Amino acid sequence: MSQTSPQRSPAARKDLPEHLKAYRHVWVFVEYEHGKVHPVSLELLGEGRKLADKLQVDLAGVVLGGSCAQLGAVADLCFESGADVAYLVSDPVLEGYRNDPYTKVMTDLVDTHKPEILLLGATTLGRDLAGSVATTLRTGLTADCTELAIDDERSLAATRPTFGGSLLCTIHTLNYRPQMASVRPRVFPAPARVPGRRGRIVEHGVGVAENEVATKILEFLPDRTSEESRLPFADIVVAGGMGLRNQDNFRLIAELADLLGGEYGGTRPVVQKGWLAPDRQIGQTGKTIRPRLYIAAGISGAIQHRVGVEGADLIVAINSDPDAPIFEFAHLGVVADAASFLRTLTTVLRERIAHLAPIREAA
Amino acid sequence: MKDASGPHIVVCIKQVPDSAQIRVHPVTNTIMRQGVPSIINPYDLFALEEALSVRDRIGGEVTVLCMGPPMAQDALRKALSYGADRAVLLTDRKFAGSDTLATSHALAFAIGTIADKWGAPTLVFTGKQTIDGDTAQVGPGIAKRLNFQPLTYVSRIRNIDLGTGRIEVERRSEGGVQVLSTTLPALVTVMDGVNEIRRGSLPDLLRASRTEIHVWSAADAGLEDLSKCGLAGSPTVVKKVFAPTARAEKAHQITVEGRSHRDVAEDLLREIFAKIPDLELLTTTSGPRA
After folding, report:
1. Which chain A residues have a beta carbon less than 8 Å from that of B103?
2. Which domains does chain A have, with CATH numbers?
3. Do B217 and B277 belong together in one domain?
4. What confidence tier does B224 reach under pLDDT thresholds 50, 70, 90?
5. Which of A165-169, B109-113, B261-265 has the lowest mean pLDDT?
């Protein structure tokens, strides 16, 4: 059963037990793997900074990894992205993510230093870890949030889509600590780095030995194509929905994206139909994007899609239904059959490029 | 079909409204659920098929477990028709309002009771997430409570060795695939798209219609501490449900009536390039990518 209806229960009143009142500060779990910090962790530091300022507490990045030498540089990145404190835990047992040692270290850190808020990226790693940590700590976890705020009782108000993305709901963890939330990549913008900004490093022991860990990593097979990671970071994205009517018409999406030097994608129903590969799905259950230009063709604009694209600077919607919800959050609209209009748009753009290119080369 | 020498596998499924068909009332902003068909969470079908194909290879039996309202029996009946051996429905008004923590608590308890009645499971399978909650948190939560090794986002099971008690899988992770080996028992959440649910055979279809579905209340499942169930057992509280507000300004509509698509397209491009000037430069100097 899911988090669905407003509740009238004792839990809905804030009555924080005495032993949890000492919990202070905002933490971000900083995902560090294969020598790279996941961009979502920096995005969370940016958002976490706002929450910490509102609460007038510290923002901390928590970094786990195999070798101590690398973590120092990650700590600096955390400070430059807004953290006041960096908790570092390094040990060969933490080389490569495994649920068991990461859960033990995280729960131990929380029990020792008692943060009031713990944010994680809703990545394959973050979701695996968040569920285990919340269950071990017996605290509340709100997954895949699209908005975070502090209410006037100092509680985290975490908003996420519900009912398959047709409505939004705001969820609180009033009487348990830490308040945990996960956020998908690209929901929040990356914060501007402040070069030279520094903070306090706290090193913490690992407390898990390799022979206590049942799971072994036999191999890591890196993806050959980086297609999957390109879509969330593309400056230009063209996407199609059921309004394109058939799989053939998705060639139009790819063609226009290519002409613009961008990426293409589609909605959940389109992926469920098998018209597009799952890694091209845009929306709450797929990729969240923040392009400068987003062209949505034949997409009605259900909330589950909307929350995945709202960070775009300019949203252009093409839909035959003038009442489609997408026109409520798009900036530019064209009421027309998506497939036939796309065909014309691509032709006109191609002519324009052909016409202008020689002039620019001459200049 | 059933083979007691093989592993006992439990598959957790959820009945969900077909979200593609949910509509929000334009005036009251409430969900219009009437007439929306219920389906097995599509992600769970990959888990069920994975369990059935493990049984095909090494024997054993498959128990399907679902928590939900009485009508979720339909989902279980469907699972039986695909070839599951046994079905358990966990249904009780006391579960209403469960969040992910309370849900994983209830399901873990039910799996404990299933173990008492029909043998301890070696594997628990779930889908990677549901399409209505989308949290992907219940699977890892069940694993933690049962003290099973959690293996999430599994795209392939390479080997199950009951002799040494180990399982080897490929797990989708950021930027690649982890090949993991761990001890049994384990909980596996199965990636989507890795298999295709089989068509139930005629004997399975006939059997599905006759097989008794075990319907358990909280008490039947051994859940005595009701403070950990439903609303009371859920640390998260839904304070507000709302429809998103429209932007202050609606989309600027480019006039279409009485004009050719070509004219409209030119207008649109002009507007786009006016708003993002360097975009035109970018597209016209670099042109399409190779």
Report:
1. 1
2. 10-212 (3.40.50.620), 227-362 (3.40.50.1220)
3. no
4. confident
5. A165-169
Query: Cβ A134–B137 below 8 Å, yes or no?
Result: yes
The residue in chain A having the minimum alpha-carbon distance to the alpha carbon of residue B150 is A99
Total Cβ atoms within 10 A of residue A74: 21
Residue range B52-74, pLDDT digits in tens: 999 999 999 999 999 999 999 99
Contact B240 A163 (CB under 8 A): no
Does one domain contain both B57 and B124? yes
3-state secondary structure of A147: strand
Residue-wise pLDDT for B138-181, tens only, equals: 999 999 999 999 999 999 999 999 999 999 999 998 888 999 99
Partner-chain contact B289 A352, CB within 8 Å: no
Residue B121 lies in a domain: yes
Q: Which of B100, B167, B197, B259 to mutate to test the interface with A (most CBs of A within 10 A)?
A: B100
Q: How much of chain B exceeds pLDDT 70, in percent?
A: 88
CB A158, CB A172: distance < 8 Å = yes
Q: What is the pLDDT of residue A1?
A: 40
Residues in chain B closer than 8 A to A218 (CB atoms) = 168, 179-181
ipTM above 0.95, yes or no: no
Q: Two tokens at A11? A: 């839990």
Phi, psi dihedral angles at A336 (to 5 degrees): -165, 165
Interchain CB distance below 8 Å, B17 and A164: yes
Which pLDDT does position A285 carry in this prediction? Answer: 79
CB contact (8 A) between residue A345 and residue B143: no
- Report if residue B2 sits inside a domain: no
CA neighbor of B20 nearest in space, from A88, A170, A163, A295: A163
Contacting residues of B for A304, CB less than 8 Å apart? 19
Interface membership of B226 toward A (CB under 8 Å): no
Q: Is residue B3 part of a domain?
A: no
Q: Same domain, yes or no, for B82 and B218? A: yes
Please state whether the peptide bond connecting residue B185 to the residue before it is cis, i.e. omega within 30 degrees of 0.
Answer: yes
What's the total number of domains in chain B? 2
Residue-wise pLDDT tens digits, B92-118: 999 988 888 999 999 999 999 999 999
Query: What is the DSSP secondary-structure string of A268-283?
Result: HHHHHTTSS-GGGBBS
Token output for B159: 């080997």
SS3 label, residue A128: helix
Do B69 and B208 fall within a single domain?
yes
Closest residue of B to A178, CA-based? B235
- Enclosing domain of residue B85: 8-228
Query: How far off is chain B from A62, nearest CA to CA, in Å?
Result: 18
Please provide residue A303's backbone torsions phi and psi, each rounded to the nearest 5 degrees. -55, -40
Mean pLDDT confidence for A147-151:
96
Asked if A276 and A330 touch (Cβ cutoff 8 Å), the reply is no
pLDDT score of B290: 37
Whether residue B233 lies inside any domain: the answer is no
What value does the mean pLDDT take over residues A185-213?
A: 94
Interface test with chain A among B12, B30, B173, by most A beta carbons within 10 Å:
B173
Strand order across the A156-162 sheet: A147-150, A156-162, A167-172, B237-242
pLDDT in tens, A94-133: 999 999 999 999 999 999 999 999 999 999 999 999 999 9
